[in-house]
Amino acid sequence: MSSTESPQAPRGSWPLYEVFVRGKRGLNHVHVGSLHAADERMALTNARDLYTRRNEGVSIWVVRSDAITASTPDEKDPFFSPSGDKVYRHPTFYAIPDDVPHI
């Protein structure tokens, strides 16, 4: 048995993890890929080795795929339509002063 294999479960039954990395110049984490691992620690270590080989990351998140709940493309219109009638949420509703940078 190699050092990366778990004695509890055969390799083929390891759960799938989604990997998110925040780059040195980034403000948010970006989905970079997926991997199978026996546990969270192994997923984090393998994600570091696989997705940050060139020192481009400063933070990594790993999330089990079965723990993610997402909307589907079929429900796009009804799911997001309630925000369409709230114009005050759009940045065009506000006057931005000339002396305010980066908005």
From TrEMBL:
Cross-referenced Pfam families: PaaB
The organism's place on the tree of life at top rank: Bacteria
Transmembrane intervals: none
Signal sequence annotation: none
Cited InterPro entries: PaaB, PaaB_sf
First-level EC class: oxidoreductase
UniProt-listed Gene3D superfamilies: Phenylacetic acid degradation B
Keyword terms of this UniProt record: Oxidoreductase
EC number: 1.14.13.149
Single GO term (MF): phenylacetyl-CoA 1,2-epoxidase activity
Protein name: 1,2-phenylacetyl-CoA epoxidase subunit B
Organism: Streptacidiphilus fuscans
